[in-house]
Design brief:
By secondary structure, the protein is mostly helical. Helix content is about 60%, strand content about 0%. It has a three-stranded antiparallel sheet with strand order 1-3-2. Helix 8 packs parallel to helix 10 (about 170-180), helix 12 packs antiparallel against helix 13 (about 260-280) and helix 13 crosses helix 14.
């Protein structure tokens, strides 16, 4: 029966979790949470937003870290009640919403996925309406990792978060999520063991972030494309070229029926620029898994960008043409960095040919204004201080044109540095292997896969009719299906 007044509602809202805390088995926990959720669904919004004895409202009594479900429902009831006068950044309701995103119980929230997403969109909308997207960045980033500390399961909230980071130019803050590799997408519940409950211990987050949980909105092919393109743009802003290239290749290799999307064409243009900045050249081909039609169309529409490779081949005399060709694509900032990267590359190549060279000669070979020796000296000094070249400048007078750039021997990595890099690679490989094992486990429980194994086993048996075949792996899997399905 639905509560009719605050006196009957409040005890029910505070009944779970039990106080003092009592350990509950998964089945009991699941039953209690679902019962509380039903009470909240049956309670009218007017009662959730009503005052409580001695003043205030439910948000002043409930603790979001303990009473996660009722706190969330009351928040949403208040947000809907205030539509005529929308909440603003800094309002009491805004602060309550941020408190919830930072402290909610990550197990309880698995039962109210749709309501959780509504709060995420509420915070986003208030931040954008107030022209301060930065205000929502850290709370939403914290919420993603609170729900899934590994950050490895893609959700619609990932796209909301990264888009806000772009709007706010909060590039460093974005890396708290972008640096977490995506391994999985919300899974269909039919691939999970039937005994698992949302509150159970799960080896991977995709076991509770499912289609049925509604912790993520429906994922179409567009959401991952947007996420990885936005992420690549952030890494480009941070000059992390290699990570940007990886994200752009995710976009380019996304499944496609017959033609490239606008997002993939844009990704291709940035992919060319990022490769020039990272490696000084455009790869001769796209990743092998790129759809052939996507590759063909992207290259046709991005042909002007391929011409940028000629900058590294023929020199900076093409600078004017390059700027004109790319200004309309909003990639001019990257193009200008490519031109500067060409100059740096040219200077670095001198190190492999010369032991020493007058700065006047360096300017003739590398500078857009060869007669400005002072600018050349400052430019070379900046490269030396940043470690891009191992060299010194010998000042033999007051005229920078007479100074000499003297190259030193190339430094080698220390054994300790090599050991640290190896440890990082080993840890990353182990993490990937763990996700592969979990994916294999889920696949083995998928009914379609087991059916395919059965068909293959039948075909093998038919082909070997009249023989006494050994039990194959496929036949063993078929036997496993019988054991799982029971009599």
């Amino acid at each position: 029966m639905a509560p009719r007044d605050m006196d009957s509602l409040l005890p029910q809202l505070l009944s779970f979790p039990p106080h003092p805390p009592v350990p509950l088995a998964d089945v009991a926990y699941d039953r209690e949470v679902r019962s509380l959720r039903k009470v909240l669904n049956d309670t009218p919004a007017s009662l959730l937003t009503a005052g409580v004895p001695n003043g205030g409202d439910l948000l002043d009594i409930l603790d979001p870290s303990i009473n996660t479900l009722p706190f969330l429902y009351v928040l949403l009831a208040h947000s809907n009640a205030g539509k005529q006068k929308a909440p603003t950044i800094g309002s009491p309701l805004w602060h309550k919403a941020l408190d919830f995103l930072r402290t909610f119980d990550s197990v309880q929230v698995r039962y109210v996925g749709m309501e959780f997403r509504r709060l995420v969109m509420f915070v986003r909308d208030v931040a954008l309406a107030g022209n301060k997207p930065i205000a929502a960045v850290r709370p939403l980033g914290a919420a993603i990792l609170r729900l899934d500390p590994s950050g490895s399961c893609f959700t619609s909230t990932h796209v909301v978060f990264v888009h806000l980071c772009l709007e706010a130019h909060a590039f460093r803050a974005a890396t708290s999520i972008l640096d977490k590799d995506i391994y999985e997408f919300p899974s269909s519940t039919r691939t999970l063991p039937s005994g698992d409950l949302p509150c159970s211990r799960h080896d991977t987050s995709s076991s509770f972030i499912t289609d049925k949980s509604e912790l993520s909105d429906t994922i179409t092919y567009r959401e991952p494309l947007h996420y990885f393109l936005y992420g690549a743009m952030i890494y480009l802003a941070l000059k992390d070229w290699r990570r940007a290239i990886l994200f752009l290749e995710f976009v380019l290799t996304a499944p496609s029926k017959s033609h490239s999307s606008h997002i993939q064409v844009e990704a291709y243009k940035k992919w060319v620029l990022a490769n020039l900045l990272a490696y000084g050249e455009v790869p001769s081909s796209l990743p092998k898994t790129t759809n052939s039609q996507v590759a063909k169309q992207a290259r046709t529409l991005g042909k002007a960008y391929e011409a940028l490779g000629a900058v590294f081949q023929y020199g900076i005399s093409k600078e004017h043409d390059v700027r004109r060709l790319n200004a309309e694509d909003h990639n001019l900032s990257l193009v200008l960095q490519v031109l500067d990267a060409y100059r740096q590359s040219t200077v670095a190549k001198l190190e492999s040919t010369y032991v020493a060279l007058p700065l006047s000669e360096v300017g003739q070979r590398t500078s857009p204004n060869p007669d400005d020796h002072t600018e050349t000296a400052h430019y070379i000094a900046a490269m030396i201080s940043s470690g891009q070249i191992n060299a010194t400048i010998e000042q033999t007078g007051n005229n920078p044109g007479s100074w000499v750039l003297r190259f030193g021997s190339s430094p080698t990595q220390t054994e300790q540095h090599q050991h640290e890099e190896l440890k990082k690679q080993v840890a990353k490989t182990a993490k990937v292997a763990e996700h592969v094992r979990e994916t294999d486990r889920k696949l083995s429980l998928n009914k379609e896969y087991i059916s395919w194994l059965k068909q293959k086993a039948d075909m093998t048996a038919a082909a070997n009719a009249g023989e006494d075949p050994a039990i194959t792996l496929e036949q063993a899997a078929f036997e496993d299906e019988d054991l799982l399905s029971g009599p």
